[in-house]
Amino acid sequence: MKRNVQVLLLLFLGVGLLHISLLTDLYLRYVRPGLRPALIASGVLLIALGAVSAARDGFPFNRPRAEGGQGHDDGHGHGHAGGPKVAWLLYVPALTILFLAPPALGSYTASRDEAEAPKAPSSASSSGESLFPALPDTGVAPMSLNDFSARAVWDTDGTLEGHTVRLTGFVTPGRHGAWYVSRLVISCCAADAQVRKVRVHGAPAPPADTWVAVTGTWHPTGKAGTGNASPALDATAVRRVPEPKDPYHDMG
Description:
It is elongated, with a radius of gyration of 27 Å. The chain is 27% helix and 18% strand.
């Protein structure tokens, strides 16, 4: 039984990895796009190892009985070939990946982790050029939460003033009725996710984890350039949008 568990586990894990990385885009819920080739290679390798083990042991992986017909029995009717029953629990993560791929991280994570403060940009050049490029003079400017937050906290030139912007993310409830439009960004995988969120004023909160595009204007809080300001938006419109294929890629 123990050998059966090992072989089938390799096969299930391999098929699960190929399912989320080769046949679908579900892998983007857990890792960056650049890791897709590594996931595909890992899935193929696991299936190959499982197939080799199955071929070597013979299907259904039964080992020949020992001489005298005793096999692995101790002669008293108590077999010792079977592994611990808890080993079957190893199938849970393999089958979960294959049939019930967990969703991307959302408001539960964002509400329990503090938003990463945007880093202060490098000093302006000697020519006096602004730290941040000017926004379009007309229309709505799509922005990433990271760019908006950096301007709200560090931009002493006020490039956000007088401009309407659009931020896209998922809804994270806050305290006392407050809510945030949020994103989680990753360097490698979901385990290193960092929170980006902007508080929304002037609009009721949609349900948690709803993906929305929030249009509005900058809501000044604190003094920019001191690190005491926080990113906030006065909403003029909140529209529900589909969850993006890559939920960790914040491009506005």
